[in-house]
Give the backbone structure.
Amino acid sequence: MRISVSSDMDEPVARLLVAELQRRGHEVRAYGALRPGADAQWAVCSEAAARDVAEGTADQAVVCCWTGTGASIAANKVPGVRAALCTDAVTSDGARRWNDANVLALSLRLTSEPLLKEILDAWFAAEPSQDPEDRQNVARVGRLDAARKVS
């Protein structure tokens, strides 16, 4: 899988994230502080990673900042992106399952190595729900994006 990763800070957990994704066999494209010379502002690098997903050059993305909130907000401004801030494995599973999230947002402050692995395990194990109500909700979010493009 092609995964774009961004971080506004060169923190150990961000480097571990890249290494862990590569260890799992994913092709990683790095942005922000993880890419020498790149703009590391959270809004800039989170948008770049999210755009890869929206444009189809990445299957998914993981965006990181100190709390994870700024990265998730910036990523969610890109039409077609459904970014979810996940601080535990249960939330990660639900984000993929019920929300068909395609971008994982993480807190550099809260995410430890064991927790990172649990979150990634749950993220990659979960499949988007085919329940009609869940699909209707995801479709509604897509229509919100479409309406935003028109205005």
User: Anything to note?
Assistant: The CA atoms of residues 95 and 101 lie 5 Å apart. The two ends are 34 Å apart (CA to CA). The mean pLDDT is 96.
